[in-house]
Design brief:
About 40% of the residues lie in helices and about 15% in strands. It has about 270 residues and is an alpha/beta fold. It has a single domain, classed as Rossmann fold (3-Layer(aba) Sandwich), CATH 3.40.50. The radius of gyration is 18 Å and the shape is globular. InterPro entries: AB_hydrolase_1 (IPR000073), AB_hydrolase_fold (IPR029058), AB_hydrolase_sf (IPR050266). Keywords: Hydrolase.
Length: about 270
């Protein structure tokens, strides 16, 4: 959602994605994963702040998979197929909201194929329950108010509202959306977190109302190798609300990973 991306959209064998390539040798591979109501444009503000990385942003097929089959596990299978199709090896996954949940499940199922994780407003432990139906789905003001819970400031413009209303008014799309919403609530990852030993960067909005601050603290406690950074006056999508601050945390983390990798190679030699 939230408009079209300013970057070129690529297609390959049914997969739709952004690809920002780097000319630098040994550049890190990053895969950015959007949330339930997200889309390719969600990472545009962050992409404009960083460079020197090989970045992929896939469009996650939330509305293309039938409501009976869609789940985090099913999306993990899809993501694995995407990485194989695009030939992305050992990426660092950055996931927002449901995208974070997907990154965690990928790390659980394919631990040898994940270099590190970056989670921001991730589901997988606790998140606000919007219910299993949209009884007021034709009430534009009500839907706008609900959508704005994502942000500290009001970032929902008329174009974004048109996209959101198109989803909630479509029986098939709404059914798929509610199905994946139910699955994210049902699929609690707490017991799996100690098994995810990759380095994890947590970047959280202090005013996140959907996955509130205590959720970030829980991730920090349960993940063996995690670090947590806060952004003030920020809601559920820090990479959209404060891309400069988010980029600073991200690049510091990526430098640490690069130095750590070089140190391991030196010791091996």
């Amino acid at each position: 959602m939230f408009g079209t991306s300013d970057f070129e959209v690529y297609e390959s064998n049914g997969y739709e994605y952004l690809h920002i390539s780097s000319d630098e040798q040994d550049s890190q591979n990053l895969v950015f994963l959007h949330g339930m109501f997200g889309g390719l444009s969600n990472y545009d503000p962050l992409l404009k702040e960083i460079q020197g990385y090989n970045i992929f942003v896939p469009k996650i097929p939330i509305y293309e998979i039938s409501a009976r089959k869609i789940s985090i596990n099913r999306l993990t299978e899809w993501l694995h197929s995407f990485c194989e199709e695009i030939k992305v090896e050992n990426p660092i996954f950055l996931g927002n909201s449901m995208g974070g949940h997907l990154a965690l499940d990928y790390a659980r199922q394919y631990p040898d194929n994940v270099s590190a994780l970056v989670l921001t407003g991730s589901s997988g432990l606790l998140e606000m329950d919007f219910g299993s139906t949209f009884p007021r789905r034709k009430d534009r003001n009500f839907i706008r108010k609900q959508a704005n819970l994502t942000f500290y400031e009001d970032l929902i413009d008329d174009a974004a509202m048109e996209e959101i209303m198109a989803v909630v008014k479509s029986p098939s799309k709404l059914t798929s959306l509610l199905a994946i919403t139910r699955d994210t609530h049902a699929y609690n990852m707490e017991k799996y977190l100690p098994q995810i030993t990759q380095d994890v960067l947590l970047v959280w909005g202090k005013q996140d109302e959907i996955t509130p601050p205590e959720v970030a603290d829980m991730f920090l406690e349960k993940l063996p190798n995690a670090e947590l950074h806060w952004i003030d006056k920020c809601g559920h999508a820090p990479m959209m609300e404060h891309p400069e601050k988010f980029a600073a945390f991200l690049e510091d983390f990526l430098i640490k990973l690069r130095n750590k990798s070089k140190s391991k190679k030196t010791k091996t030699l």
